[in-house]
Every structure is written in structure tokens, then in C-alpha cells.
From TrEMBL:
Its EC number is 1.3.3.11. Residues 23-232 form the Thiaminase-2/PQQC domain. This is Pyrroloquinoline-quinone synthase. Signal peptide: none annotated. The gene is pqqC. InterPro entries: Haem_Oase-like_multi-hlx, PqqC, PqqC-like, Thiaminase-2/PQQC.
Amino acid sequence: MTVTTVRDDGVAAPWRTPEFTERLRAVAEERYHDRHPFNIRMHQGELTPAELRRWIANRFHYQRHIPVKDALIVAKLDQPALRRAWLRRIQDHDGTADGEGGIERWLRLGEAVGLDRPTLWDATRVLPGVRLAVEGYVNFCRLRPALDAVAASLTELSAPSLMRTRIAAFERHYPWIEAEGLAYFRARIGQGGRDSEEALALVHAWARTREQQERAVAALAFKCEVLWALLDAVDRGGGS
Ligand SMILES: O=C(O)c1cc(C(=O)O)c2c(n1)C(=O)C(=O)c1cc(C(=O)O)[nH]c1-2
């Protein structure tokens, strides 16, 4: 039970840092897509090759838009040090030259399951629900203040643990996928841990009032829904 302190002016006092952190972590854990039935089936080794290909082709649509939404966040930052830190995320995905970066690693994952690059880039396999979920996330970061957009990225608090589970599941249940194809997930363990700690520090610095703290928690809940809706669409399937 948490006690809500209301000040004399009737405005709820801000949560102290440990309670605020606890609330953010609770959302990132309890509503995270590692609990989605599709991910559970993936981890139990129950996905068919066609289902894995469907997930990889549709998740590419998310991956290719992450640097786009990060560029929208950079445009909201007015300090060189903040922009420098956030620009590194774009570099993680795009690399500094052709043949590098997270998008390249995801394309190689696609090739490891038999999806060629043009098929991933032309987006013909992208399901309507996935398109909407990704657009919802990009537009959220376009239209909301930096606090909300950065707080939404905090799903990454739970991502490193999911990456470890996923790598173990792929090695055990889907040996037909070459180990080299899993490089994307291996790289994300370190990147996700570092990104989420940096984002958490920014959210703590910027959310000074209870209203701002509640906005941050709501932004994170929204992002959990984006990831959940994306997997709902992939789970349901349809199309090729
Ligand atoms: O595979 C996943 O389950 C997963 C989840 C998330 C996430 O929690 O948002 C990201 C990623 N992967 C990812 O690869 C990634 O680059 C990434 C960036 C972000 C973000 O919101 O800025 N989330 C995620």
C-alpha cells in the first residue's frame, strides 16, 4: 500500500524517487510483451518456420522505424550532451557505414530464416495491425513532449532479460536458424541495458511534479500496448 500525500493546495505531492522508479518498473514488467501468448509459444519452441518468418518480417517494420522516432526525439532536445547521447541510438541501428548496425543485423536474421532483403524492405508482408502499432509509436514520439517520448522507451528496462530468454529458446528449439542470425539479439542485451538506464535518469530529472510523473507512467503503459498490439497482429496472422 502506498500513501498518497496531498499538499495544502490540494495538489498531490510528487512520488519520491524510489516509489516513482518502482511504479515505472512495475509497468515495464507486468505489461511487457514477454507475457504475450505469441512470445510464450516462441519460447516454448512451438512456432512453425512460417510463423517465425512472419514475426521477423513484421518486426523489421518496427526496427526500421526506431531510428526515425529517435530522430524525432533528438529534435526535441536542446542540449548538445543530450543530443549526442540520443544520436548514439540512431547509430546503434544505422551503423556508421553500410554493412553495420542493428538494421543490418536484423536483415541478416531475415536471411537466416530464408527472407531476402528486398522482401523485408518492400514491406509487402507487413500486417495492417503492425503498420498501425508502429505508426502509433512514431506519432506518439512526434507529438508528445520529450518526457513522454523518452519514458515510452523504458520498455527497454525489460528487454535485456527477454533477449537472453529468446537467444536460449532459439538455440534450443530452432537449431535450423544459424547462430550468426542471432547477432541482433546479442547486441541488444548491452545496448538495451545502457539505453534504459540513461532514459531512466532523464525521466527522473524531468518529471518533477506528480502530474509529470503520472504522464511518464502512462507513456510507458502506452508503449507496452504498442508492443502487445503488434504481437496480437502477428499472432492472428493473415496475408502471406
Ligand atoms: O525484441 C524486443 O522484444 C524488443 C523490445 C523493445 C522494447 O522493449 O521496446 C525494443 C527492441 N526489441 C529493440 O530491438 C530496439 O531496438 C528497441 C528500441 C526501443 C525504443 O523504444 O527505443 N525499444 C526497443
